[in-house]
């Protein structure tokens, strides 16, 4: 999703801003732009495509002397990816970059057109720019404040005023941090964009406006605010592929290590998990892979622990009429902690005084800050757009939490050792690259693929299918194995790959029957399981574990197959087209 970087200090901002944009590339974008400002001029340069295109353009321009600038990577929402629509936008005295969506853009635009303002782009950002300019009468803070009273939706803004020697920033429902060094200030969508310059930062909170120049000032509703300066860990992970060809592969290979780091404190001290048995009902909410991790959690909580559990897509849950008539816990799952829909779902529950628990990776994120309880996964920075290690840790935390809840219920089972052994087992599984390449060779030219399984295995199928389609662009569908014959089986044809997942011993025979149904119609079967069956084209067998920990060994196999397939298809694995790492708009 869009990325913002800004600088105000003593240096020329060009290198700082370009470095920042490159660090934000992982978020996904389709155009970029930069603005430099001094006392007399504002220079704006934009480009469609990669940041290297912008860099190339900058190399051919005479750049003005200055010490303030803003830059942006845009992921198109209002209007096609083009130079006109790319940020920064400029109207009158005001130049700005924006992350988020202005929901009442049309209404404000109409009002401004009536006042004689004309627009060049199709974007909501130009409308914000024109609105701030409309209110600007020599007091920048006041103009921003007045515009905020009119604006509905989400925004993080980096703003320049022609006659102000400062950079301004504001946010609502979209992340923004302020980096601080002696007399130098940075703004960024996330700390990774500026970590090479400073690890001291301030988290800008909802509705706060910052002035970053010779005066440093943060105001909210007309009052000056004192903020705490935080320190980020300097993180070489952000840049370094450690010799791997792609971040996705590096991040999969890190799984054994981050799994150990995340689970060890909980394996040592059960009390660190909230007591789920206090609740009559649990709602697990997330988007994409985070939701699929939640579905594994739901399956374990219901089947093994016996707690009534619902799982829903955050973008649906936020708008549904949810009846909270029993003691309910809402679990929010999010790697970034900034997914707009998941934030809205959390706020919905918080407003109704329902307990919220976040399973989150980014500790400084909105979800981490606003949820009542939190469990941090220790994935470190995940750069590849398609999540791998963070998803696995979400599953691992949910699985161990479910197991701990079953213990409190008095169910005796000696599975702790297997949880402790997981990193070692996982290392072995990840070493089987040859096997995954063999499967990739079989499927990489296909256009359609199915993943079938039942119950918890269906939840695993959903993630296997999502991973494959997002990085390899092969169309695939996850299906409940028993549901195929109610229509979808008509799509099965000679040679079509079908992945069958079987870990749940109770329904193993049922899934085998469904696999037989597609096999007899010509499908090529790739079975991923914990016990050899010895009758299918390909059988990948992982060590057999208890029901709680088993999926943690299956998912990395699917991630590796997706990776190897995308590699054979020469896809842009770390930054698949149209996708964004952190979906900060609805
Ligand atoms: C898929 C993927 C997405 C995210 C989803 C939620 O590989 O990465 O489906 O899982 O956008 O993101 P977070 O976890 O940051 O809320």
Write the layout of secondary structure elements.
Blueprint: E1 3-8, H1 14-24, E2 31-37, E3 42-48, H2 51-59, E4 68-74, E5 89-91, E6 94-99, H3 105-114, H4 124-135, H5 140-150, E7 155-161, E8 166-172, E9 177-181, E10 184-188, E11 200-203, E12 209-213, E13 216-220, E14 223-224, E15 230-231, H6 247-253, H7 255-268, E16 281-286, H8 288-305, E17 308-313, H9 314-317, E18 328-334, H10 340-351, E19 355-360, H11 366-370, E20 373-376, H12 389-408, H13 416-430, H14 433-443, E21 448-453, H15 456-472, E22 475-480, E23 497-502, H16 508-519, E24 524-529, E25 538-541, H17 551-568
Parallel strand pairs: 16-17, 16-18, 18-19, 19-20, 21-22, 21-23, 23-24, 24-25
Antiparallel strand pairs: 1-4, 1-10, 2-3, 2-4, 5-6, 6-7, 7-8, 8-12, 9-10, 9-11, 11-15, 12-13, 13-14
The protein binds fructose -6-phosphate.
Molecular structure report:
With 586 residues, the chain is α/β, with parallel strands linked by helices. The chain folds into 3 domains: 234 residues, 4-Layer Sandwich (Glutamine Phosphoribosylpyrophosphate, subunit 1, domain 1), CATH 3.60.20.10; 172 residues, Glucose-6-phosphate isomerase like protein, domain 1 (Rossmann fold); 145 residues, 3-Layer(aba) Sandwich (Rossmann fold), CATH 3.40.50.10490. It is 35% helix and 23% strand. It contains 17 helices and 25 strands. The strands form 4 sheets. An 8-stranded antiparallel sheet has the order 3-2-4-1-10-9-11-15, with helices on one face. A 7-stranded antiparallel sheet has the order 5-6-7-8-12-13-14. Helix 15 links the parallel strand 21 and strand 22. The chain is globular, with a radius of gyration of 25 Å. The termini are close together. The mean pLDDT is 92. The site of fructose -6-phosphate has 15 residues, from helix 8 and helix 15. The site of fructose -6-phosphate (F6R) has 15 residues, from helix 8 and helix 15.
